[in-house]
Structure formats: structure tokens, C-alpha cells
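agent> Task received from the user: take the single chain below, predict its 3D structure, and emit C-alpha cells. No templates, no multimer pairing.
agent> Plan: (1) validate residues, (2) run structure prediction, (3) serialize to C-alpha cells, (4) report one or two observations.
agent> Step 1 OK, no nonstandard residues flagged.
tool_call: predict_structure(input=
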Amino acid sequence: MIAVIVVTHHTLAEHLIATAEFIVGPNPDLVGISISQKDDVEAVRKKLSEMIARFRREGKQVLILTDMFGGTPSNVSLALYEPGQVEIVSGVNLPILLKLSACLKDGNKELRELAAEMSEYGRKNIFTAAEFLEL
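)
tool_result: status=success, residues=135
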């Protein structure tokens, strides 16, 4: 089993998760952490570490999705990377969360494979109007 933690700036994580759940329904293994300017980075790291530890105690691997590589959410998450147990993908978007919901229900992918698939899927679901309309 794989659990997912979305880590973002401001309130993006909560809104992305709420929107995904509006479309596909709730998932108890999908949680979020949003980081504001006033948050203490060490407190955020501790909260994320505790979430990871809780999922790990439940026997789950953890996929962390961050909003932007190099930002505080990404940097805090990267410090907790653990090969084979905690994987990180930066650039989370709604298509990723929707696809991920379907993949988690299947439950037949390895963590690293799932992370790579989500990264590729996110990239493939970014379009300009010209690409779509002016074929």
C-alpha cells in the first residue's frame, strides 16, 4: 500500500485534495500539508516526518507530491527522502491527483514506478490551446 502526502505553499494542498475528492471521492491515504510564510520550517519538517512515520507504522510506503522543485515544500520533503520507502515528485497538479486515485485503488504498482508514472502523466497533461485546437 502507498499513502500520499501533498506538500505545497499556502493552501494549495488542501484545495487540490478537496477538488480531487469532489471528483473521485475521499481517500484516507491522501493528506496535505500547506506551508505559509509564518510557519517555522523545522515545525513543518517535524509534522511531515510524523505523518510519514504514521503511514510507515501502518505498513505503507509514502509518495510525497510537492508544488515546485526548489521551494520550501520540496526542500523540506527532500530531506525526508528514503529510497524504496519515501519517494518525491515535484510539480503536483490536478490531473496527477486524479490519475493517482485510480492507481492507488488498483494497488499493484511499486512506489518508484508509481512516482515515475505520475511525473510523466503530469507533464503529458499540460497543453496550450494552440496544441489542442490547431492540430
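agent> Step 4: summary for the user.
The first strand starts at residue 2 and ends at 9.
agent> Done.
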